[in-house]
């Protein structure tokens, strides 16, 4: 009996192994200079390779050098996404191949400047073969409802996770990080170390956990 249990657990352990990161440049360390449209000279700002940026009204979406201890201070690049006082929105996204019926887990580190209660959003947007949106899964990262309504207080780095099932007809998923509008009064939300993985369905993970518990009890 014990041998059968060990075999089952071995199979579950293999199936429970997460895949490699599906995102290109998820740590935002590979960057390209943003050139002035008129002079074609570097502006001093950079954008992350493999990612597309969008802005609306008073907003920004670019990479910045994380230098200060207050910001986490390792001197590496982070994605900096923000907007002005109730004006505008912005984001960065990357689209990769996906398969219907598979579970995907998106993980990212996120924080915010000491500014006007900014809010962040992480999203998985499911696309069909025609490029049409057939569903989406989202959650907030930095959330003023959690941190309270205190202005000028930085929100510390935390790791956020979003797991979702790709719906029928999915061929691609757009991974997007953005400023949440409406909600925040403005400011910058930063993102780093983004990872997208294919993971086992929750039922499989539950069985794996129960199997480990049974083994511990038998011991």
Can you characterise this structure?
The chain is α+β, with helices and mostly antiparallel strands. The protein has 2 domains: 1-16 and 201-219; 19-199, Galactose-binding domain-like (Jelly Rolls). The chain is 16% helix and 45% strand. The chain contains 3 helices and 12 strands. It has helices spanning 2-15, 144-147, 202-218; strands spanning 31-35, 42-48, 52-56, 59-65, 77-83, 89-97, 103-112, 120-127, 133-140, 155-165, 172-179, 187-199. Helix 1 (2-15) runs antiparallel to helix 3. The two termini are 14 Å apart.
- Overall pLDDT, averaged? 79
CATH level-four homologous superfamily name of the largest domain: Galactose-binding domain-like
Query: What is the count of structural domains?
Result: 2
Q: Count of helices?
A: 3
For the secondary structure, the number of strands is: 12
Q: Which architecture of the largest domain does the CATH hierarchy give at level 2?
A: Sandwich
Structural class: alpha+beta
Strand residue percentage: 35-45%
The profile of the biggest β sheet is: 5 strands, antiparallel
Radius of gyration: 20 Å
Order of helices and strands: HEEEEEEEEEHEEEH
Shape: globular
Write the layout of secondary structure elements.
Layout: H1 2-15, E1 31-35, E2 42-48, E3 52-56, E4 59-65, E5 77-83, E6 89-97, E7 103-112, E8 120-127, E9 133-140, H2 144-147, E10 155-165, E11 172-179, E12 187-199, H3 202-218
Antiparallel strand pairs: 1-2, 3-6, 4-5, 5-12, 6-11, 7-10, 7-12, 8-9, 8-11
Helix pairs in contact: 1-3
């Amino acid at each position: 009996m014990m041998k059968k249990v060990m075999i089952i657990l071995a199979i579950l352990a293999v199936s429970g192994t997460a895949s490699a990161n599906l995102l290109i440049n998820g740590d935002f360390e590979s960057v390209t200079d943003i050139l002035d449209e008129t002079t074609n000279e570097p502006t001093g700002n950079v954008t992350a390779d493999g990612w597309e940026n969008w802005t609306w009204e008073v907003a920004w979406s670019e990479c910045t050098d994380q230098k200060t201890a207050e910001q986490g201070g390792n001197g590496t690049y982070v994605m900096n996404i923000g907007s002005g006082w109730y004006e505008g929105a912005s984001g960065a996204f990357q689209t990769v191949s996906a398969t219907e019926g598979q579970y995907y887990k998106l993980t990212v580190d996120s924080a915010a400047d000491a500014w006007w209660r900014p809010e962040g959003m992480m999203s998985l947007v499911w696309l069909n073969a025609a490029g049409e949106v057939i569903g989406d899964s989202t959650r907030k990262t930095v959330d003023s409802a959690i941190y309270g309504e205190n202005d000028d207080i930085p929100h510390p780095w935390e790791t956020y996770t979003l797991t979702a099932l790709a719906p029928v007809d999915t061929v691609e998923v757009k991974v997007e990080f953005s400023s949440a509008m409406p909600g925040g009064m403005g400011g910058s939300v930063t993102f780093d170390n983004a990872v997208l993985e294919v993971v086992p369905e929750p039922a499989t993970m539950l069985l794996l956990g129960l199997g480990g518990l049974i083994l511990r009890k038998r011991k």
